[in-house]
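User: My collaborator sent over this chain with a note saying "see what the structure looks like." That's all I know about it. Can you take a look?
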Amino acid sequence: MNTCAVIYCRVSSQKQVIEGNGLESQQHRCQSFANAKGYHVIKVFHDEGVSGGKLHRPAMEQLVEYLKTRNDRTCVLVDDYKRLARD
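Assistant: Without extra context I'll predict from the sequence alone. Here is the result:
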């Protein structure tokens, strides 16, 4: 049975969101890693224009709530640990 995984991507500025820098490349690298490991990606979460220093991040909160509904071990993939938090 394949390991299930979710992907979390975040960019901090609206400029990155508008210009398309960051989210797609983060997701692509995470998906490539999942493919190499044989993980099945079941969901992707994007926080667009949200600082990693903020406690309220809608997609991160959705990710946590989603994980609470899972009855198995689900990996969370991020391109860089800085996507999860700052300082």
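A starting point for your reply to your collaborator: The longest strand covers residues 40-48.
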